[in-house]
Amino acid sequence: xNVPFYPLQFNPILKDRIWGGQKLKTQFNKPIPSATTGESxxxxxxxxxxxxxxxGAFQGQSLTELIDQFPEKILGTQVFKKFxxxxxxxxxxxxxxxxxxxxxxxxxxxxxxxxNSFGKTEMWYVMQADTGARIIVGFKEDSNKEEYLEHxxxxxxxxxxxxxxxxxxxxxFLETGTVHAIGAGLVIAEIQQTSDITYRLYDFDRKDANGNxxxxxxxxxxxxxxxxxxxxxxKYDIHVNQSNNMVDxxxxxxxxxxxxxxxxxxxxxxxxxVYMCVEGSFSIEINEQRYEYKKGDTVLxxxxxxxxxxxxxxxxxxxxIS
Length: 322
Description:
Blueprint: E1 13-21, H1 23-26, E2 37-43, E3 45-46, E4 49-50, H2 63-69, H3 71-75, H4 77-83, E5 89-96, E6 102-104, H5 108-115, E7 122-129, E8 134-139, H6 145-153, E9 161-165, E10 171-174, E11 180-182, E12 186-193, E13 199-202, H7 218-222, E14 233-234, E15 244-248, E16 253-266, E17 273-286, E18 289-294, E19 298-301, E20 307-320
Antiparallel strand pairs: 1-2, 2-5, 3-4, 5-12, 6-13, 7-10, 7-12, 8-9, 8-11, 10-14, 15-16, 16-20, 17-18, 17-19, 17-20
Active site: 200
Protein name: Phosphohexomutase
Keywords: Isomerase, Metal-binding, Zinc
């Protein structure tokens, strides 16, 4: 069956969150359903939240349906070999009007054992930051279960956690087990394994509209936490019209493309590629067909597409599995 594959965009899956705001609308024009919209899931195959193609020949089809029909052509030969028909990554934009809870994600082994799920290694790219906005990442110094539990009980957990001021363009790579929280005033592009497993450690004792506090997962988290001090911030080059490596891990590779003009891309068919536009606008040209994108757009290039041209003035995150 000869199908003309093209760059795929999906309808955003929008999530109301106690900490969310309205920047996904004001900055990206997402059709948010509430004034507390915290997340736009751009590409997802998490059960119950499956992405659906927005336009083109495959409009209305889900990503899982497409993978089922064309596994190697969508995913890539090597990705299909490794993961079967599972789409292994989840792509999001987040708007933190308030601090997120302090949380941790389990590794593959623990997540598989407890939840039949992937773990959740993730990375953040800071798209917008209010003055003084910060994130919490890991411990200031090496810690242990006893010290952590004592501070949790005394509501002094923040005193032993590392806080970093965040600014536009900052990149943080969070391996599983890293205690973390996105602080108020940040808009983040997030790339992670396909997993929705989060252990909430502390939620600043806040209450929802009904006066209820959110569930904590203190016991589950104990064996998931890495109590060692970690280095999470990543430095990267900014060479124009080149793919500058930011993160290279077993789960994904992310590059930064500062696009100014045109860039030809030739790739193999081992893996799909995802482009997240984090600033400006650009087009993708394939066989004389042009597709236009702007800040806040996410596009999936099926692995079958091996030649294309990028054109425009934009900052782009380029993600694939190597």
